[in-house]
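May I ask for an example protein's residues together with how it folds?

___
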Amino acid sequence: MSEELKSILDNVIYLDIETTGLDETSSEIIEIGAIKFKDNTITTFETLIRPRGRVPIGIYNLCTGLSKEELYSAPSLGNVRESLSQFLEDLPLICHNGNFEKKFFRYHLPQIKNTIMDSMELAAILEPYHKEYNLNALMKTVTDMNKNEIHRGLDDSINTLKVVNSLLCRLWSSEEKKGKKRTLYENINKYYPYLKKWSWNKHLLKPPFFIYHDYDYVSYKDKKENETFLEPLKIDYKKYEELLKDEKIWNNGGDFGYTYRKNQLEFSKKIRENYEKGERIFIEAPTGSGKTFAYVIIAAIGTYLNSLKKRKDDASFIISTNTKELQNQLIERDIPNILKKLCLYDKLKFGAMKGKANYICIERLNKCDRLEGDEEGNLALLFLRRLAEKGEYGDIENISYFIVKRFNLERYFKDVTCDSDSCNLEKCIKPCYLRKRYNELPTENITVINHSLLACWPYTEKKKINHLIIDEGHNLMEKCYDFFAEEFTSSEFLESLDMIDKGHPNIIGLLLNLNASFGFRETIEKDKIMYLVNEIIVNLNILMNDFRSMRLVSGEYDFNTEFFIPRDDLKTMTKCLQPEISALKESIYPLYKMLNTYVSNIVLDDEVTGDNDYKNINDYIIKLKGTFDMLDKFLEASTFFAKVLEIDKEYDEFRLKTVPLNVGELVNEHMLKDVKSTTFLSATLRIENSFNRIKKHLGQEKANDFLIPPVFDLKKQTKIFALTDMGRYDDANYIKRISNFIYETSKKLSGHVLVLFNNNIRRNGVYEELEMLTRGSKIEVHTNKKSINILNDKNRQAIILGTKGFFEGIDVPGDGLSCVMLDKLPNHSPEYPILRAVTTYQHKMYQDFNYPQLCIKVKQIYGRLVRSTFDYGYFIILDPGENQYTIRNLQRDLGGPVIESTTSLKVLEGMESDYNNWKKRNLNIMIKKLQREKKDIGLEFEGESKKHKMFWELEGVENGVYSFKNINYELKGKL
């Protein structure tokens, strides 16, 4: 195989290691594979390494073909050191994610000092627009190889070689095709002084007489799309939701199975009627009702028909979501798929829109001094420029997480993203992605945004919101407090003070320029300005020192309190802090007044339209006055607001928040003003079987509502338990007890368990316990959200531990997820500042405020368990608390079976029987379906099982007896 390979680079080694984990101090190297190109001669190195400790079972699943017997009979690391060193010589090593190899070599093989070149870093610089840069993703995008990464040393080294070859071929081909005046190599050497010695720099220069044909696996397509062939259909769009009955439309192309559901049609009809009448409606659509499908079809057809009639205002829908995951799902999958089926993909425009701070600003990027001082900064600058240079990309949320970490981009984002105040999209002439999206808004038919942007929609002059669909609408119950709060953050204010003399450009410099351009009408006293700035900083430091001396932070959490109605032991302290905050506020005013006076005296009554210096200074002065007003408002006691003091657990910053308690008025004023029609959607809008709570909270008492009946029989498909023997969540032994129960459950169910926590500290404690309990077993423990996909693998026994980010957006139908646990009910602490304000000022009971948010969260969590008619399992509340009123209400609102208060032992005793019954039921449903359709069970069963994400397999048929198996459960019988 090595004889067929060619490397564009000579005198290099492509190397890959496999390890038992990610942490070099607690994990071992178990395989090294490498391929060397030296003076046009190819040699390879490949060895397994016998580990000293335990190898997690997941490693055998990850590394294709790796066996325990083979691994433990391999030589030790000490026995391969010498041969490895001889093979490597002093040649540079090319590794994919080279920092990984670097840290393992530094710890386990410190004698290896070779330069390590990271091919992932190369890929990011050459092609900065990819969302994933792992080896598998790049193999599929930059090569035509039809294979997957197998996580074996030599094979992955060869794949790395081919990816590097492909990246370089694509670079040079692109430069030739576009006839660039200056190549990337020339650009780096002219504009990036700290990258002249970058390990990849010299390799970016194309060799003379280079032959592309030697590398026939290279893909030269910018983007690969899996196109589905669709037959041309004549569609009567005036039928709207009635088209849901036409399976010919939805099964066209055969890329997904479609089943007509009457409830979905009724649901879709309600959205259309609401849109046509210009009304507001709340619709609760349970899991499995086809919610997204139902509203996208109305938005698509409605905008299309109105665009034909030249009704511009009605040819546009805004879809607002809470999570980034749903926003991406809509843009990347749901909307394009539905438009293609409807033959509208080329007739309608759609896209996502975010706040200005999400987009790279070319002008600010080019002025960012922090990117000019070292190799790390130059690499980040090169990456961001190449990403944003043509205005085709620039959304920082779409940058790969690995790249953000690799180039330390979070350090620079504040300095290089668009500034809401100074960004003038109408006058901007740079190739800016935000400006591109901004200019596309007027002609866009479907625009997807998030709820926080909806609360302060800043693009009204370009696109008015006429028809609005608010998906994940339940989140507005709590999020509206954040949306409409005013917040002073000490660290951000310090950064703004730095702009006085250190910004680029700084405020003093702008003042001097402005003064010069108007004939030096003022004398700018820099020392006096800086004196006033230092006075403010002194007052900020006094406050922070007060917080420390009062020891307000205790434990591992940030401190927070309602400032005017704290708990009794804090009342004296908050009273002492009032004059300190007032002193801070009063110290801001002289700086504001001085700067404002300077500007007024300089410009007088002269025309200053279009003067950037004036605009930037004026914006800064307005912000300064806004900060003064914000602190003034915070110090004013009011029964209409919660005043919240928050202190970072490390005392790095403090925050002062003014939170409105009556958010309904603000929803109507800031979110829904002038909106023609609004549809609120969620699977969890009702509280106590009624829409009244959420409608009243959001100021929508007159809105209509519609309830879609449950799609699944939750009473038959699930059981809910509230454990009585785990103790309270703050007991010393609680983590140990629940860890043992989680482990015992996972043994019985062969994994496929999701455990959700209200905070990271408990999650981390359970993770540590389970790591010890699962040693030597086949059970894996994961905490990363991307690990959710492991649940779909019947050969892996996984426990996934998640926090609040896992409460929504987890969709694992079939046998993959069969048990969901919750560490405790998500009650608010009685000290939660907004709760204290509501109960004190509005005279509400604790439960009146707490239960609605608790109900919504628990319904969302329970909803992770059942996503299809074949789903089943246990929902277990590990600490249900002591309030039986809450449990009774939850039992009613969840719409499932009776919540059984019982012991962990009783749950474990009945588990095998319950799960076998559910599995047997699913098997019978599939068999009966195949028999009804007169299909050959022997030939069709496997496909049917996979279609429904079942783990059932047909083991064989002997003498008319069928043998079926679902992991460790077997059934035999004649059909």
User: Anything to note?
Assistant: The chain has a mean pLDDT of 93. The chain has six domains: 2-214, 227-355+423-466+675-708, 360-417, 486-660, 714-910, 916-974.
